[in-house]
Design goal:
The complex is a heterodimer of chains A (about 625) and B (about 525). In chain A, about 70% of the residues lie in helices and about 5% in strands. Chain A has about 625 residues and is mainly α. In chain A, a hairpin with a 2-residue loop joins strand 1 and strand 2. The longest helix of chain A has about 50 residues. Chain A is globular. The relative contact order of chain A is 0.08. Chain B has 20 helices and 2 strands. The longest helix of chain B has about 30 residues. Chain B has one domain. In chain B, helix 12 runs antiparallel to helix 13 and helix 17 runs antiparallel to helix 18. Classes of the chains: A mainly alpha (about 625), B mainly alpha (about 525). The interface between A and B is large, with 37 and 54 residues.
Chain lengths: ~625, ~525
Amino acid sequence: MLRVAFLIPLLPLAGFVILLLSGRKLGNPLAGWLATIMVAASFVVTVVVFAGLFRLPAGGRSYTQNWFTWISAGHLHVNMGLLVDPLSMTMAAFVTGVSALIHLYSIGYMEHDEDFPKFFLYLNLFVAAMLLLVLANNFLLLFLGWEGVGVCSYFLIGFWFERDTASSAAKKAMIFNRIGDAAFLVALFLIYERTGSLDYHTVFSHLGSVGEPSLVAMGVLLFAGAVGKSAQIPLYPWLADAMEGPTPVSALIHAATMVTAGVYLMCRINPILYRAPDAAHVIAIIGAVTALLGATIACAQNDIKKILAYSTISQLGYMFLAAGIGAYDAAIFLMLTHAFYKALLFLGAGSVIHAMNDDQDVKTMGALARLMPITAVTFFIGWLSIGGLPVFSGFWSKGDVLLNGYGFSPALWVVGALTAVLTAYYLGRAYLLVFRGQQRWVEARKPGDRAGLKPHDPSWVMSVPLIVLGALSAVGGLINLPIHPDLDFLDRWLSPVFASRLFQHHWGLGGVWTFALIDAALALLGVALAVALWGHASERPAFEPVVLQRAWYIDWAYDRFIARPSTEVAIETSSVVEAKGIDGAVNGFAWLVRSTARHLRKVQTGYVRNYALGLAGGLVLVLAYVLTRAS
Amino acid sequence: MKLLAVLTIVTPHVNYVAILPELILIGGALLLLVSGQLVFAKIPTAFYSIGSGAIAAAALVASLVIWHDVQARGPFTTIADSVAVDGFAIVFLVLVSCILILASAIANDFLVREGIDGPEYHVLALLAGSGAMLMAAANDLILIFVALEIMSIPLYILAGMDSRRRESGEAAIKYFVLGAFSSAIFVYGIALVYGATGSTNLPQIASYLNTNIITSNGVLLAGLGLLLVGFGFKVSAVPFHMWTPDVYQGAPTPATGFMTALAKAGGFAALLRVFFSTFGVLRTDWQPLLWAIAIVTLLLGAILGLVQRDVKRMLAYSSINHAGFILVGLAAATSQGISGSVYYVFVYAILVLGSFAVITLVGGKGDENHDLDAYRGLGRRQPVLAFAFALLLLGQTGIPLTTGFLAKLYVITAAVRAHSYALAVIAMLSAAIAAAFYLRLVFLMYGVKLPVGSGGDEGALSLPVTGEPDDGLDPTGSVPTGVNIGRVVVPVPTAVAIFVTVAVTVVFGIWPGPLVDFVHAAHFLF
């Protein structure tokens, strides 16, 4: 059953190729259905492979499938091949599963878009690249997937490129990602230089002979790559702008899957981080600070998608916090549940945005619950999940992170706990402003009234994913319950990958329950704050300070201190250095070559006798040379 | 009695299977030739083309059979040791078969368009192909010479095939006269080598050189030098290249493509075998010579390619530049360099066939529409054709993700490994210069406005084949009269051939493994 693993990335890729060749002919909605089916089929294959892997004994759950030699140059040998192990299959399962739902949702969401087939073409390519990223058996192939998702993200953020904001957001995402990618590349060079390979297995088994400074450098550089892709401090501003893309894209790429690639990478390189604790500490600290920063900003945003975007940044920070302290299973657990509830929240937001005729400002919404019950209920579940209310999935996963965080350092716990309160609060604010309180929009009085709105729940293709994701968000925590040693399925499933390198603080059941109670109290505090403040009011300037609305002025600072000076330098370079120096040199060389050619071509007279003379001349030169060598 | 016994001609045992591809080509060519006479009705050109393609395909199958044999049993020699059946030969047998298949598809449309009836074109092509195969397999200097002539004489005639164009005949005469001249030099070289070593058999020469220290090597080196001149002529290495632009321009376009691919394949096959395998011990003597020839070949091809207005002439200089690259691999004189050269020949043959197939189509009826201006805006008029041509040109430029890039990479890497840094740098430099004329053509097709001074102001080519100096008579660069920019008809066989060449270029550029492995099988017998 493991042999079919190659189909997992290949099916979406096939979808991409088909759509590339005949997307326009398939049209709307066939192209969307094709893309959805491809991803769903990939999900089915993943489940089959997953089951096959599950049947193996725990110690032997690793299967490498080599397709062919991709690059063979000197000592560098890179295979195109997949690594099927519990970590990659867990990733593949949620990537394909959530993606399939979002594809389905997109059929409804993008219904009226002119470039409907193109949208699905990018989506399928994205899923294929993402699956390559998680299933790769070496760093270079991972990097190919890494770049693939990056470029798809660029295309999809700029999908409505007619808007200036969308195209500049796409460029911004690209540039921020490039910074991380450059570090990633350097890390690859370093890994190859130190271990002579890029294959995970070989690299990890050679780490013993690598010095710790090199290991720290590898860890930090790879983390720098992850910082770009997963929007951590300082490379996070692109994610908020990425909300210019269609909402399903935000749900799929900028919440559920692509941005988690960085966390996946950190988990994958756990053998390196284990030997480079300094690098791991940097990861944990950056993650914690990002979690808090994202949460504070999310408290004061008015654009529903920006709230979710900063929330994503914050949640990713949690994941890095967990990965940094070595609690990889907690990171993956949070990633999984986050994929469910964040996708749910984004899709819910998309449904609201649809209903509000593309308005995204929560301040102009209100009282939508009675008109859109499905959206409201599922969004409510999403809120409780991300907020960490007991029994909802977020409660368990976030609890896992906080628990381990405290075990590592109480300081990390304090930051995490503060973030937890804020998380329950800011999404409560969003929920209440959108679905409760007073109606702040104008209802359409009669059909065809353009000024007014007539909000309603979306069609079934959009509702089904909401309901499924809602259910998963509610009960997703079941896969890893810490309350009894037999119920932590995910931890045990992943344990062969992380082995003894896993950080686990054993609290005993009493400790676990104590923390669970504290977590519940924190979450309830956040919910209570939200209800008290925003239950009936829509304006509270004191709780939306300008500094938070402007996201701590960090974007402004980037613009002022980096973007503008760089532009100045670029303009200067292009008008002076490039035009005079470089172009001058190039033109000079071209002139030299051309004038040489003008003289040389005179030899080419067209007369056979002259050509024969040339031949004979060459012969004489050859013989003259022979004379110098003859003995 | 004793005397009689000595005079008895000993017929060597002939292993016919070992030379089956060559036999198929020769037999097939004869069959094709007589088939026209056996029936009274006029046989359509397509029949001959299909026949020619089928014969080449049969030769391909035979080559693969032999390959299988060699892989199972190891390389061997046959027919009194004059033919070597080894991996190296077989790579070229396969290549020549592929060239013939593609060329017959491309030629068919040309022959139909120009109304050149009869089987002669294909018969000549098959015969030339058999010569090229023999050059690759020959294990004896005499046989190399015979093979060289079997290959060359049909090529001379092919160059003059288009009797309605005066330039075609002129090209044939020029090619023939100079070819005969170089052949004479080549034979003299064989004689000198024989005089110095007492054998014309390559392994025997090699073992003689290995076991004897030659105190006076003047004759041997002179012989080697003369052989190099003969080979240099065939592969258009500078300064033995001067026929190239005129013949390329004058010959019928599909014949030009075929000739380029075939002569490079056959010429380099024998050159690599003789120099690296047989005279390998003398490498310190011949390496500087090849080094110098490679450099001037690289630079002259790239530089003069820049100032051509005729696309065929431009590609002639491009082919000189490519020959330089292939020589870079040989000049490294390492097995890595030889692999690089073989890979380069393989890749270039495919690229150049595809390129000339496009040029044949754009040339239009009369085969005269070869000015750069004919390509202006082709990207808009015929996007698919232009895209294919662009890919082929990018392949020749050596853009990554094409086979052309890998070919350049391999030979330059070999040069670097052999510490020929200057050669490597000059090779790269020449590739950069050559990129200018390939890309100019691409830009022209896609209507990119070129800044004044880089594309428009150089002299238009006059008619060099008529004896005028090859210099600008038309400094204004205006559109010459007679340039036809109508729609180009793309017949199916040529389209398929172009598709195949593009596919090979791109697929093996992205996924180099299989082709590289295949070429790596090109081991010498000894």
